Amino acid sequence: MRDWDKEKRAEDPDTDGEELVRLARDWDWHVRRGVAMNPAAPLDILEALAGDRVAWVREAVAASPRADREILDILSEDGDGFVRAAVANNLNTSPKVLEALADDETMDFDYSLSKNRYIVMEAAAKNPNAPAEVVRTLSEHAEEGVRSAAVSNPNVPKDVLSRRKTDLSWSVRRGVARSPASTTDILDHLAADRIQDVRAAVASNPKTPASALASLAADRDVEIRAAVASNPGADAETLALLSRDWAWKVRETVAKNPSAPEGVVRALAGDSDQSVGKAARGRLAKDPQPSGL
């Protein structure tokens, strides 16, 4: 039977070092994993648990933000794919190890998508420490999940985003639309995408130019118009237009937008919908003279 109290102590960052040493040697792997997950676990304990016989314990070590490169180097060659995926996902993992893991073809079935996914490759593709050439190579992978992961990397090269803006997979194009590295030309292009989720990502991106946001403000989808209404890059004319939208959710979002003109916010304070009026009055109470003038 699992000892839940012992597991709780194993995961508690306030548990003293001597007890953590004892818990790291516990017969129950759930307790040992709890120690590995503890954000205060000393490095010497993590080093010992990196050699644990149970893969779930080693996986927890590989995911620990306290694991150093020496531990991660060792676990990158672990026989369990989930352990290697955790290494690939760790922000302490070296570029050299990520380059090696980028060739790892371990797959796992994703029940939410009803398909197999390259769990190690995807993790390596997203890691900010991955070399640019690794991200570029994985962005050309045959599997859309790997390409989506590559374009989500915060350091993705701009030429990769430019090529992938016309990707056959809408999930990849959505990733490009979400990227803070996307240029205005790329976002302008994706603002006209036929897929709703892609346009919604463009509408939410703070780098999207005001002209594209003005176009999306006329979109038939409420969620997209609401995303435009929340974007601080939307100009006064666009926000004024959306403040008269038939959907209360859009008008409420305009009232909360820090870029909304004072006159628009004051008008919304008297909106017939309670949620909209409350949002506008709350905004005025905090800032009697909204900045978006």
Task: Give structural notes.
- With 293 residues, the protein is an all-alpha fold.
- It folds into 4 domains: 67 residues, no CATH class; 65 residues, no CATH class; 52 residues, no CATH class; 65 residues, no CATH class.
- Helix content is 58%, strand content 3%.
- It has a two-stranded antiparallel ribbon with strand order 1-2.
- It is globular and about 65 Å long.
Main attributes?
293 residues, mainly alpha, two-stranded antiparallel ribbon, 21 helices, 3% strand
Task: List strands and helices in order, with pairings.
Blueprint lengths: L3 H8 L5 H7 L5 H9 L5 H7 L5 H9 L5 H7 L5 H9 L5 H7 L5 E4 L4 E4 H8 L5 H7 L5 H8 L6 H7 L5 H9 L5 H7 L5 H9 L5 H7 L5 H9 L5 H7 L5 H9 L5 H7 L5 H13 L7
Antiparallel strand pairs: 1-2
Q: Averaging pLDDT over every residue, what do you get?
A: 96
In terms of per-residue confidence, which ranges show pLDDT below 50 for 5 or more consecutive residues? Answer: none
Please report which band the strand proportion falls in: under 5%, 5-15%, 15-25%, 25-35%, 35-45% or over 45%. Answer: under 5%
Distance between the termini: 64 Å
Question: How big is the Rg?
Answer: 24 Å
Helical fraction equals 55-70%
Choose one word for the global shape: globular
The domain tally reads 4
What series of H and E elements makes up the topology? HHHHHHHHEEHHHHHHHHHHHHH
SS summary, helix count = 21
The largest sheet, given as strand count, sense and whether it forms a barrel, is: 2 strands, antiparallel
